[in-house]
Amino acid sequence: MKVVVMSDIHGDEKRFARIVAKHKEDSDYIISLGDSELKQKRLLEHDVLAIKGNYPFDAGFTREHVMEIAGRRLLLTHGHRYRVKTGYESLYHRMLDIPVDIALHGHTHNKSFKRIREKFVLNPGAVGDLRNEGSTYMVMRFMEETVEVDWMDTDTHEMIDHEVLPI
Q1: Rounded distance, CA 98 to CA 154, Å?
Q2: Strand, helix or coil at 71?
Q3: Which of 23, 103, 150, 165 could covalently link to 75 via disulfide, CB atoms 3.0 to 4.6 Å apart?
Q4: Cβ atoms of residues 36 and 16 within 8 Å
Q5: DSSP-assigned letter for residue 51
Q6: Per DSSP, what are the bridge partners of residue 147?
Q7: R_g (Cα) of the chain, nearest Å
Q8: In 113-145, which positions are buried (b, 16+ CB within 10 angstroms) versus exposed (e)?
């Protein structure tokens, strides 16, 4: 299964449209982790599973969502409610409570990968309103014994980082 994950679009319609055009036909899910600043109708017309961010008028559908893909449980959240800018302790405890294998979050505008014991926390970076890094998103491929994760440059769609989760 192929899942495309983006966050912090902040109204950058052109970059959003390029990501969707590139991956819509061969993706099982397209996920936005909040602060899209796009109209809910726009997200729905592309079947985007959208999480609410901390932007006051964000068009996300829920503040967090738990889903299962290929036998792995995922938590989708923007991250601000778990204070991800200062660490992952709160988010990790939420992962244990649910329980989930992988947490996907945005909010920091920086792509990241963190393994905490047997759990994985990933951030696709930001599509719009760039701060420290260029515009990035994530493509996840769920295999039988692993999850392959590629961070992609939004403008060129070239892979800029890669991780393999052994779950």
Answers
A1: 32
A2: coil
A3: 103
A4: yes
A5: B
A6: 142, 165
A7: 14
A8: eeeeeebbbbbbbbbbebeeeebbbbbbebeee
CB of 154 closer than 8 Å to CB of 133: no
Residue for token pair 């951030």: 123
What is the reported pLDDT for 119? 98
Report helix, strand and coil shares of the chain as percent, to nearest 5: 20, 35, 40
Query: Topology of domain 2-165, per CATH?
Result: Purple Acid Phosphatase; chain A, domain 2 (3.60.21)
What are the structure tokens assigned to 47, written together?
């079947």
What pLDDT, in 10s, does the model give residues 82-108? Answer: 999 999 999 999 999 999 999 999 999
What does the pLDDT look like over 60-85, one tens digit per residue? 789 999 999 999 999 999 999 999 99
